[in-house]
């Protein structure tokens, strides 16, 4: 279960992305949540982690969280769709 559930708190995909960005920006996605890592198990069910240069489907899913990470796995941006 996520620490914060932006899906029920926001009104749209921009709200979803903004709320999650504040939770995960600058952190790596891992198995536990601590000062430098955010637990993958706490992300919404509908999510994908995209590294620089990764291909992604273009289907739009407003409930899906897209975590954009750099080459070392640090979250740089979050979008929804």
Care to describe what's here?
With 81 residues, this protein is α/β, with parallel strands linked by helices. It has a single domain, classed as 2-Layer Sandwich (Trypsin Inhibitor V, Chain A). 20% of the residues lie in helices and 27% in strands. Strand 4 (65-69) and strand 5 (75-80) form a beta hairpin. It starts with 5 loop residues before the first helix and ends with a strand. The model is unreliable at 3-10 (pLDDT under 50).
**Separation of the first and last Cα atoms:** 21 Å
Shape, per Cα inertia axes: globular
The class by helix and strand makeup works out as alpha/beta
CATH class: Alpha Beta
- Which fold name is given in CATH as the topology? Trypsin Inhibitor V, Chain A
Query: Which ranges are low-confidence, i.e. pLDDT below 50, for 5 or more consecutive residues?
Result: 3-10
Tell me the strand percentage band.
Answer: 25-35%
Overall strand count: 5
Instruction: Indicate the percent of residues in helices.
Output: 10-25%
The DSSP helix count reads 2
CATH architecture, please? 2-Layer Sandwich
Mean pLDDT: 86
Number of structurally distinct domains: 1
């Amino acid at each position: 279960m996520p620490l914060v559930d932006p899906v029920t708190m926001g009104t749209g995909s921009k709200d979803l992305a903004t709320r999650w960005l504040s939770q995960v920006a600058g952190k790596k996605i891992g198995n536990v949540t601590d000062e430098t890592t955010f637990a993958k198990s706490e992300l919404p069910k509908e999510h994908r982690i995209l590294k620089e240069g990764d291909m992604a489907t273009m289907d739009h899913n407003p409930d899906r969280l897209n975590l954009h990470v750099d080459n070392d796995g640090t979250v740089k941006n979050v979008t929804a769709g």
